[in-house]
Amino acid sequence: MIGRGHPWLSLAPALGVIAVLFGGGLALGLAGSFGMGRGGASLEAWIAVLSEGRVWRSLGLSLWIAFASTALSCVIGLGAALLLRRRFPGQGLARLLFQINLTIPHAVGALGILWLLSQSGFVARLSAGAGLIDGPAGFPALTQDRFAIGIIAHYVWKEVPFIGLILLANMQSLGDDPESAARSLGASPFAAMRLVLLPLLMPALIRAGAIVFAFSFGAWEVPVLLGQSAPTALPVLAWQRFTDPDLAARPEAMALAMLIALVSAVLIRAAFAGRNR
Amino acid sequence: MSPRLRILLGLALIAALVAPLLPLALWSVARGWFFPQILPANWTIEPWMQAFAPRSEIPGALATTTLIALAAAALALALGIPAGRALGLYRFRGKALVELALLAPVIVPGIAVGLGIHGVFLRLGLTNSVPGVVLVHLVPTLPYVIFVMSGVFANYDAEAEAQARSLGARPLQVLWHVMLPAIAPGIVVAGLFAFLVSWSQYILTLTIGGGRVVTLPLLLYAQAGAGRNDQAGVLAMLSLGPGLVILALVARQLTGRGMAIGGTR
Amino acid sequence: MTRLTLNDLHLRHPGAERPALDALSLEVGNGEMLALLGPSGCGKTTALRVVAGLIAPDAGEVRFDGVSVGHLPPERREAVLVFQSGQLFAHMDVAANVGFGLRMQHRPKREIARRVAEGLEQVQLGDLGHRRPHELSGGQRQRVALARALVLKPGLLLLDEPLSSLDAHLRTEMRALIRRLQRETGITTLVVTHDQEEAAVLGDRVALMLGGRIHQIGAGATLWNRPADLEVARFFGGCNFIPGRSSGGAFDCALGRLALPHAAPAGEGCLTLRPEAIETGEGENAVTLRVIETRFEGLLTRITAEVAGLRLEALMRAGAARGATPGQDIRWRLPREALWVLPGV
């Protein structure tokens, strides 16, 4: 227990489970995409998937969703953190309420966003009540639309507190000294924030952003509810292929899932860059 | 920025963040609430009565979800506490790689793992079963537990264990009387995290559970899709439960830091 | 109570250049309190941990009453180590802390309660049983840590720098307490410290440890006035080292022929003399020197003087130091009893 340290015994069970379930799951998905287990390995599924226009459109859509969601969440999250870091009446309550979204399941949030932003939703009814529109059709299509506005709105709604709290924690440990030093050297508050604070927050922001990107890229439950049916987000497409009664579609589903995993793998580097050793 | 502006923006922020919960809450106490009604015409508690009536699927889903989440959290703790201790207390070669491996499931979307592992689970008879779902829920929950516990152990003074041994405590006694009490608050936080992650799962439950294992998120979408918005509203409110409990308990401990991963590690 | 024997211990921490323990040998008699003195990094805490069983040595033996205990884990050894920080268990109150070891022995509750109460009385904390560690002052915490160890009536008590975390004014009090407790209980005790005064006050004997090995053991005064080698002398602030030759009860050197208190082995050697022993005036072993520098150091003044290329430093009270002016000659007497020829140099 104490002594020079033999940590591997303590790590083994967890590592084992992750290796088998997570690593194994990925490996099997890869194998499945090559058609293994159904006779012979082949690139058939991959070729089919990569030459299909629908797949590229879905990929493009998912990337758009991820970029837009991450960018907006980061900016608004930073703003929220800057807002909440200074003392003002109700700061404590605001900070507490700020955290609520973290505990709300995505499915619940997605449904809420749907009922909020759909053409017959709450905001639409407020507009009708204010005389801005005549009927549901008069309200812009924010859900199940081409630009995936509803989907992006959901991710921003959910992840702004996530990013905001990470930044708040970092700002707390940084303290006021860096910006104070800049101010006493003649920098305006905004310049101090931009040139001193922001660079210091960058590592944490990048890590958090990578996590948000990966999630908004690869999640299923949000686009399935808030998205169009064509083009649809990549995870939804993968699921459709997986549940297709034609079993030949399975390898293609796996290939799509592997594509999703690939994109997130690229992000792992960013997500864990510069962690304290 | 003047305090007044801060309050205003703060209010706007909070309002925006709480907004989606409104229609969900309202539907759970409405009978028929359609365009262009801003507020339900009829307020009633009937949706809740129906939700817990004998023929409702909701109590079953509630029980299932809770059971799965408890089991997943317990397993994740059992595996994650020793792993967290190893990462928090020791330095060793390959540690960075291990950290990467243990936290990768946070980044890689569940669908990539679920589709792949489905075949094996099918052959092992784990599909369409609660145990199978519990197992697969380990993938997203374990990294969270490990992350929290490694942070706890990083602040842990292992010298206390040496002192206890010098006072005559055997290793198991040291574990029970010295280590566990010291890390207990961390265990609670990690366990709650794991519970919440399992509670919120959708795609993994759907893939492995095959639609037979009905948890709250699945039932939520099903009811909404079937037009039973009132039941969906009740389900949404029920789904918020654990999260609010956690917030109340943890908010005090974590003060301004919030449940943020990757933040101040 | 136990006799402790350390036999030729070797230990090198992984990645360290020099060994922490280098052929360390030591004997602590039954009922004795030995102070293990040394600068930080000399290995004394490592030695303590080896005795406690928390680290295994690379080589060598640890014996309690002549029986080797190397194979015993810490919880089975009759030795209790009290850490420098006290290491009170924060989640237990004082009574639970003190009773911890007894609880590990599965003693009946009533017995534990009785012995805990006695133990707390012994350290004069009788009515603080319900407090939590964070509610106690530093001195009180240290006393609880002591009580926690003593209540087990261990064969061997190991104290790692028990006073270094305390404020100066508390230290004297605690020192007296530790001395009294050790005398009352008669438990063989090994105290590790870097403070010379502490070592001299606490220890029946003092063992000076430098670079992983024991250089000298004896009463505090002996180490002070009769250092076994150059390093021991330097550790205690000795600074006058005079080379020369001894023959027949006298020492020939650049200062002349100095009378020694007793015969030293004939031949080349190094004479040492404590700065505070030097006196002004005439008499046996008087020399004339030129003052180079005087420095006020509070209670005493340090005077550096030189003759025939040899520098001497003296520490004197204000009155005696008055005559010394840099550039002037001065007459110093080197009392015979204060002269010591370092053996083997």
**Rg from alpha-carbon coordinates of chain A:** 23 Å
CATH class of the largest domain in chain C: Alpha Beta
CATH architecture of the largest domain in chain C: 3-Layer(aba) Sandwich
The CATH H-level homologous superfamily of chain A: MetI-like
The SSE string of chain A, one letter per element, is HHHHHHHHHHHH
Q: How does this structure look, described?
A:
- The complex is a heterotrimer of chains A (277), B (265) and C (345).
- Chain A has helices spanning 8-33, 44-50, 53-85, 91-98, 106-117, 122-129, 149-174, 177-184, 189-218, 221-226, 234-242, 249-271.
- By secondary structure, chain A is mainly alpha-helical.
- The mean pLDDT of chain A is 88.
- Chain B has 265 residues and is mainly alpha-helical.
- Chain B has a single domain, classed as MetI-like fold (Orthogonal Bundle), CATH 1.10.3720.10.
- Chain B contains twelve helices and no strands.
- Chain B is globular, with a radius of gyration of 22 Å.
- The model of chain B is unreliable at 255-265 (pLDDT under 50).
- Chain C is 25% helix and 34% strand.
- Chain C contains ten helices and 20 strands.
- The model of chain C has no long low-confidence stretch (mean pLDDT 90).
- Classes of the chains: A mainly alpha (277), B mainly alpha (265), C alpha+beta (345).
